[in-house]
Amino acid sequence: MQPTSTMNEEFLKKWQMGLQMFRPSIDNASVSERKRAIKLSADVAMASLRKGTTCWSRALIQKTATEDNFLVRQMLSGIKEETLINKKLPKVMCHRKIVRRSKKILMRRKSRSAMEEVAAKAKKLVKRKTQGLRNVVPGGEFMSNNVLLIQETLDYIVSLQTQVNVMRSIVDAAEAGIER
Amino acid sequence: MDLSGGFGARSGGGVPFREVTALESLHLGGGDEFRRMVPPENAGGFTALLELPPTQAVELLHSSSSSSPSQPTLHSLGTLAFPSNSVLMERAARFSVIATEQHNQNGNVSGETTTTSSVPSNERIKTEPAETETCDQAAVEEQNNRCGGKRKDFDKKVKSSTKKKNKSSEESEKLPYVHVRARRGQATDSHSLAERARREKINARMKLLQELVPGCDKIQGTALVLDEIINHVQSLQRQVEMLSMRLASVNPRIDFNLDTILASENGSLMDGNFNGTAMQLAWPHQVMETEQSYHHRQLQQPPPQQWPFDGLNQPVWGREEDQDLGNDHNSLMVGAANLHPNQVKMEL
Lengths: 180, 348
Description:
The complex is a heterodimer.
Chain A: H1 5-20, H2 31-48, H3 55-67, H4 69-75, H5 81-86, H6 96-109, H7 114-136, H8 146-179
Helix pairs in contact in A: 1-2, 1-8, 2-3, 2-8, 3-4
Chain B: H1 3-8, H2 14-30, H3 32-37, H4 45-51, H5 54-66, H6 72-78, H7 85-101, H8 107-116, H9 127-147, H10 151-161, H11 163-173, H12 190-212, H13 222-249, H14 258-271, H15 276-296, H16 320-327, H17 339-347
Helix pairs in contact in B: 2-4, 2-7, 2-8, 2-9, 5-6, 6-7, 8-9, 9-10, 9-11, 11-12, 14-15, 15-16, 15-17
């Protein structure tokens, strides 16, 4: 599924709304502050498109809420922002050290055979990659199973694509305008 | 019958595919000769068959479809001249004997027999092809797990060849519950069934992801696909950073209405070929429209879609334009803002 034009429009509207929060201060601020404002409002806009249905969107909103609570509240006004911002994250991260140690002990006890080792190595590789994916996708650590993770990744990629498309067209227009 | 088509397509390939699994099992069962014959990266049974002279392979397929389902392996292999014929025949005989004896333990034969034997009617016909295919796949998987070696290749090849299966499995997932038929000789406890359903779900989703991420179709293997996905997501995130940096570094101008710029930009994107002059003419039109919509509406409610994606046929613009522009203080930082007053000046 590729980003649709309605998604583009909605993202743009929400992004604009967020950018307007910065309106009074934006002209004097430095480049990095402007960039931060742009990025934060774009992220919240992208996440609010999903209206809290997906895990990554909630995690992303909570992440930006730690950076700029006021902005998030304004942008999400009316869409259950209280629950989204204050909600505790659903799952506690498992203590990986403990799990790893116990697995090592188990592995030592178990007898090994050639085919099992290869299968085990392949599984380890896949596990490592899924862990990498969890690190990249916002809120990945809190997705309990792989099915959910892949679903969320799918949605996240589509939303990222819309964000990139819209931002790129704006930037192109802006830079074209400058040259003229 | 086209070989590759026969392997790839699912519709007519039910029985021949089972033959292939039988062959694969034989191959796996200890076929060192086969392994030597086959190039190392293609340890799959499919390609093993493809290595054979095409006539023999076709004969295999034809004979398997014609022969009775209960004793496929012996018949089919008898008609072929394998390079290491005698050894394989032996193994085939041994294996099929064992298979017929141990109905309850051998997943491979059970896979064959269940699908070919008459089964109680499943109200979800769609799950039936899903089942047959997944049972073959699971049969192959079992063989893989049991016999070791380069089995992941098998798995992935089987998965990649079943496109129809994924569609049907996806459709079945939308139902409140899936009628999963337990295979004969397969453990019927809820754990393995649930596990199988989970595996199918994951594979279906991975297929979707592969289609979404460019360049993932060719890759075999979960780990590499996941690698590609991670790279794609990271590149998208980096692009967002770059674009926001570029946007921020553009000089901010006042009296800019982001709506208009993007509106016409998107309009131009939609229309494709866009004349520069036409765009300049159009922008004042857009200005009036969207500004009015802005002022007259709440920000929460989305303004009606008067704008821009349907092109530049906008109503007349007159004196009001100046006033609107003056009133508009949506000062957002994109630099194309200075275009805006310039254009207007040109028109005036």
